[in-house]
Amino acid sequence: MFRRIFSIAANTFRETIRNKILYAILAFALFVIGMTFFLADLSVGDFARIIADVGLASIHIFGVIMAVFLGINLVSNEVDRKTIYILLSKPVRRFEFIFGKTFGLSVTLLLTTLAMATVLFLVHFSYRYGGRAEVGIFIASAGIYMELVLLTCLASLFSTFTTPVLSAIFTLSLFFVGHLTNYLYVLGEQSKGTAVRWGSRFLFYLLPNLENFNWKNEVAYGGLKSFSILGWAAGYLVAYAACVLCLSCLLFARKDFK
Amino acid sequence: MIHKGLILAIEGLTKSYPTGFWRKPVRVLSDLSFEVRENEIVGFLGPNGAGKTTTIKILNRLAFPDAGKVTLFGGQDQGGADVRRRIGFMPEQPYFYEYLTGGEFLRLCGQLCGMSCADTESRSSELLARVGLSGSRDTAIRKYSKGMMQRLGLAQALLHDPELVILDEPMSGLDPMGRMEVRGIIRDLKAAGKTVFFSSHILSDVEALCDRVIMLHKGRKVAEGRVEELIGAETLYIELVVSPVLTHDRLAAAGIPPDAGYAQGALLVLRAPDNGQANRWIAGLLREGCTILSCVPMKKNLEEIFMERVGSSGATGAAS
Predict the structure, then answer these.
(1) Can you tell me the mean pLDDT for B159-173?
(2) Is the pLDDT at A226 greater than 70, yes or no?
(3) ipTM over 0.95
(4) Which of A99, A77, A241, A71 is nearest to A158 (CA)?
(5) What is the pLDDT of residue B320?
């Protein structure tokens, strides 16, 4: 089983790293991150903070673009190009296919996030006025990466039953909502209606809470130094991603390919 | 129940596809049942929309039936990995990962089938040579022609040395040379003890290759049997080819009516209704100094049987 998942993951990784659009997005992301070096000179006050702030925001935005763009096509491309016919006619179970595809894309996103984080780290380190070896950049990037993995799982869930365009809309909607679920909870708790309170609590636990992976502000203000913070976020990621992948597998298990 | 020698058994397969939220689903297969036995070559025939591809997809778990049952290798469920490992499948107009080379793709297939690297490499070399793609092993699949894709599809289906080979339109897209090679491969598979189940529109290939055929129309089986049984023992007429072409007077002298044949270049083609008539005509022709070039009893071919069966069950369907 693991060998088959690994083979599918390796093939997905190979497919995604040969995607020219991915390189175009990555090149533009690295360019924007590099430009923060000059942007800092134009700002007022804590120059290096601008580098970390804008740089991490760039990693986040471009990472989400890559995850959504690649994630929504994860399954639908295989179905449209009918390559899935050959794959699933082999002794491959459908959940192995979903897991393999998701893991393969997660490895690609790991490399792209690492590349962006490394460039940002070097830019920050080499900046003359207050620049330093900011380990927090890697911690915050790890958080961003975990968020991207969760978005990939969600995109692959949607791509098992709907078109790439709708998958993109659903995934991006969850991305935006996922950063607002804390507000949803707080607003719900302030309501006098029991139904509203329970409804908001239900949605708070049902929807992904992507703020669990967001440490950009802490890094920008120099308050994040320990990797231990990643533990809770990783636990949340594993639990939530497992649920999403199980749902994907359930939906995909009896799908007919016309 | 274990049936010795039974490789594939389909019982009461029914399948409908939804066509929209409000619209009625389209029935693609209706109560289809048949069996394929060990070491047979079985042809699966039907016009477009008959349900051949849907049946083949169900056999490969790419689609699921609404009702009915598929069992393989003497009663085993089709879902198990061990069962799947014993099946080779080539879809119609196969598509591959275009960024891989032919060799890389076969390596991936070998990994998915649980083959060792050494086995995969040796089988890949052997099969690529067999399908005429040895020189294209390291060429990116995006540069392959349609015929080369078809050949690679066949190679991946046979890579893990399956016992049952299911081929969906294996001849489509191939030139006459390619078709001949594929026919040779199918015959070799039978000689090696394998079972082959394939769909095709090319009836002459089916007639030449198959032990048995199953004809499908509008999702229902309209005929099944051995090719010679379907064609039947009955002789339609006896075709005589003679030289030279005789005038009407000389034909009359030989005892042959003038409308019994036609001239084809320097040859005269005659159709005798039965053996007795053919013997009398041959004697008359020899008296007139003709040379008898051939004398062949003509039977119905598969195409005529197919048209009869399909024609009698109505017009062509809508989905495949």
Answers:
(1) 88
(2) no
(3) no
(4) A71
(5) 40
- For chain B, the structural domain boundaries read 6-86+162-231, 237-298
Mean pLDDT of the A20-32 span: 88
What is the helix (H) or strand (E) element at residue A106, kind and residue range? helix A94-126
pLDDT in tens, A182-222: 888 888 888 888 888 888 888 888 999 888 888 877 776 76
- Single out the residue of B69, B47, B46, B49 nearest to residue B58, CA to CA: B69
Report the residue of chain A nearest B152, measured CA to CA: A86
CB–CB contact B114 A91 (8 Å): yes
Which tokens in the block code for residue A50? 């601008």
* A179 at B interface, C-beta within 8 A: no
Tell me if B111 and A14 make a contact (CB, 8 A cut-off): no
Ordered by start, the domain boundaries in chain A are 2-179+214-244
- Indicate the fold that domain B6-86+162-231 takes in CATH: Rossmann fold (3.40.50)
Q: Residue A14: list chain B partners with CB under 8 A.
A: 99-100
pLDDT at residue A74 greater than cutoff 60? yes
What are the φ/ψ torsions at residue B119 (nearest 5 degrees)? Answer: -60, -45
Q: A258 vs B85: CB contact, 8 Å cut-off?
A: no
Token pair listed for B174: 């191939």
How is residue B101 annotated by DSSP? B
Q: What is the mean pLDDT of residues B23-38?
A: 86
Tell me the three state secondary structure of residue A81: coil
Q: Which amino acid is at A176?
A: F
Residue type, B203: L
β-sheet bridge partners, residue B243: B291
pLDDT in tens, B208-244: 888 888 988 888 888 888 877 777 666 778 889 998 8
Confidence of residue A171 (pLDDT cuts 50, 70, 90): very high
Strand order in the sheet with B41-45: B87-90, B164-168, B195-199, B41-45, B212-217, B220-226
Given this model, what pLDDT does residue B135 score? Answer: 85
Length of chain B measured in residues:
320
Q: Which of A78, A86, A88, A255 to mutate to test the interface with B (most CBs of B within 10 A)?
A: A86
Considering the domain B237-298, what is its CATH architecture? 2-Layer Sandwich (3.30)
